[in-house]
Amino acid sequence: MRTDRLKIIFLLCSLWLTVPFFCLTAEGKDFTVVIDPGHGGHDPGAVGKRGKEKNINLNVALKVGRLIQNNCNDVKVVYTRKTDVFIPLDRRAQIANNAKADLFISIHTNSVARGRTVRGAETYTLGLHRTEENLEVAKKENSVILIEDNYQQRYAGFNPNSSESYIIFEFLQDKNMEKSVKLATLIQKQFKNTARRIDKGVHQAGFLVLRETSMPSVLVELGYISTPDEEQYLLSEAGTEALSNSIYRAFLNYKREHDAPIGRSKVQQQDLPEPEDKPKKPTAEAQTAEPDTATEEPVRNNKQTVTASTRTSKPKGTTAASKPVFKIQILISNKILPKGSKSFKGLTPVSYYKEKGIYKYTYGESTDYNKVLRTKRQITAKFKDAFIIAFKNGEKMNVNEAIKEFKNNR
What we know:
Elements: H1 2-18, E1 31-37, H2 53-71, E2 75-79, H3 89-98, E3 103-110, E4 121-126, H4 132-142, H5 151-154, H6 177-193, E5 199-205, H7 208-211, E6 217-224, H8 228-235, H9 237-259, E7 325-333, E8 350-355, E9 358-366, H10 369-378, E10 387-392, E11 395-397, H11 399-409
Parallel strand pairs: 1-2, 1-3, 3-6, 4-5
Antiparallel strand pairs: 4-6, 7-9, 7-10, 8-9, 10-11
Helix pairs in contact: 2-9, 6-9, 8-9
């Protein structure tokens, strides 16, 4: 009898320890994750002495997908491929967009030139490369387009081997960067703690497969097939189990935060001369003047710094602080951009606010949503991914709520 009790207690304890790594409820909105095993078919990817990248990627991807499907009833898993077939890069992004996915995870295996020995796992988000090493990784993964039909037309003349082609990523505004970086950070943490991998960190680079996705997206490099002991690990059952479990646990942690209520982020405006650790107190009034165009009111301040502190035009009988203020977010950066940066494409004045360590740049502002919408249409040719955001009393708010309030106040 006592033995049976001990068995029951042991079983309950085991279940309790396992609970954090399972999706226990199917309540709430369905969640879709697209898993993308890189390369495939006549594109082997990186090749080692014993294995090929395409097979390692698919093996880990299917294991990640099975873990999610077996334990998360509220999550739909979509694969860009489940067999050894070739899928063009733009088609992979299209699959994710058509599925209206909440996450896109592209799985790859790295390599370096013969004679070099590198070990460890790293995760990338979309952005401009900061080092030559990151650029080389992007070039290698993007070079797959060279074996696609009509790649010059399909990718607007993009040359994966030309450094000049990657300048487009400097101007690319990714509204999902914050969430992408969050997922990438969680994956790296699990690689380090669960799989005991060397942590090569979270990086940015210009990956075409991430460029066209409309949801938070990451590209994972599992390890180096060019390093013999790494290749052995990547081909082993223990290695692929540890790697897939790491990605799975990171996904669960991300989804747990995604499902939790998200508080509003306060605007944190800073002037360039001030150090980053001394942010100015947010003011109730907006920080940028409206564009000086035929359809907009004239700029009310001649200060032409990136964070020009100017006053918003106030409707009679009210203050700007009492109504939502609409702005156009044009790009984001992980650092402060200099005055007159080419990234602004000639727009001035441009403002920024800092949110969770990321600098988000905006252009134009008004309490009149229609006015900001017209301005957005005017700059679409320069910033096709620009979108409207809203603030109230210096605090970022849901833009749909702001539009509803704007309509009610008319």
